[in-house]
Design a protein that fits this description.
Length: about 130
Amino acid sequence: MNLPSELKYTKDHEWVKIDGDVATVGITDFAQSELGDIVYVEVETLDETLDKEEVFGTVEAVKTVSDLFLPLSGEIIEFNEALEDEPEKVNTDPYGDGWMIKIKISNADEIDELMSVEEYKELIGA
């Protein structure tokens, strides 16, 4: 299972890449493998400011729909529009082309509450 050590993780199986005051967010390799073939990613919160753990969208697989929870408070400044035509990128490249949103972070202190790769591995039993 692919778990890049430079990323942060959440108990909701999302990964977070911090670059200054912008965070890129997607779901982990573990999450996409548990969901199965992803057929649709919906994010209707673009340009909205949300609190940590609010639902920012959904990911739909063949058998289920899962909410996506914001890992950090902030404004959603970008959605990966490539996923509208190719949602399977979440399956094939969850840490690259399968990223979902970018957030302008409003509370940098929350970054410390995210999980390290070691903590996330413990959570999923890897």
